[in-house]
Design goal:
By secondary structure, the chain is mainly beta. The protein contains two helices and twelve strands, in the order E-E-E-E-E-E-E-E-H-E-E-H-E-E. The protein has one domain. The longest helix has 8 residues.
């Protein structure tokens, strides 16, 4: 398996951090230019995707470390066997059918983001990363996947949950026993093996 090595340090300082999503015009908390803006304080998000991550055996609602990313996630390539193994940016899309699926795509961070946008007309990398939505693919979440969710109001607060918990939280049918946690539809960093997401770590964005 070729998997992207990903790590991100996000700086939320006196200058607002801005998120640019390729091919996506819907934003929240926008400024006059239509860009998503978040004021805040300096902070560093700890840990790499493979360090401090939940495992299938991590008890639900144990606090775990959120992912960091740098470079690029893997290119979305499908073959006869479906999506190739790799690490991807993902959006949760099936929430009420008894199954959990993700739309996966590629994201570029830091210097890789700058290199990517230099080749694509009209695309900017204003806050350290951008999401390349095409090509994309859809993958199911493995029933024994290791999953974590990010707290709505704290970029440093993540909890391990079960796949069933994730489906219930996203559908508004479950609540959390963890203090300081509220569900938010943030994206995920997923690791795909044999056509299924075997890890899904939610990634806090402003």
């Amino acid at each position: 398996m070729t998997s992207a090595r990903i790590r991100l340090v996000r700086r939320l300082g006196g200058a607002a951090a801005v998120i640019a999503l390729v091919g996506c015009s819907d934003t929240t908390g926008t400024n006059d230019t239509g860009s998503t803006v978040v004021p805040g304080v300096d902070t560093t998000m700890p840990v790499a995707t493979t360090a401090g991550a939940p495992t299938p055996d991590t008890p639900a609602w144990t606090r775990v470390e959120p992912p960091r990313v740098e470079g690029s996630t893997d290119a979305v390539v499908t073959g006869a066997g479906g999506l190739v193994d790799g690490t991807y940016w993902a959006v949760l899309d099936a929430r009420s059918t008894g199954a959990t699926t993700f739309s996966v795509m590629r994201a570029h961070f830091g210097a890789a983001c700058e290199a990517y946008v230099a080749t694509v007309r009209g695309v900017q990398c204003m806050s350290g990363y951008t999401v390349q939505r095409e090509p994309g693919a859809t993958v199911p979440l493995a029933p024994d996947a290791a999953v974590s969710v990010a707290a709505l109001d704290d970029p440093l607060l993540s909890f391990a949950v079960t796949p069933a918990d994730l489906l219930g939280l996203a559908a508004g049918k479950a609540t959390s026993p963890a203090a300081g946690y509220a569900w938010a539809p943030f994206p995920f960093i997923v690791e795909v093996k044999a056509g299924r997401a075997v890890t899904a770590r939610q990634f806090w964005i402003p």
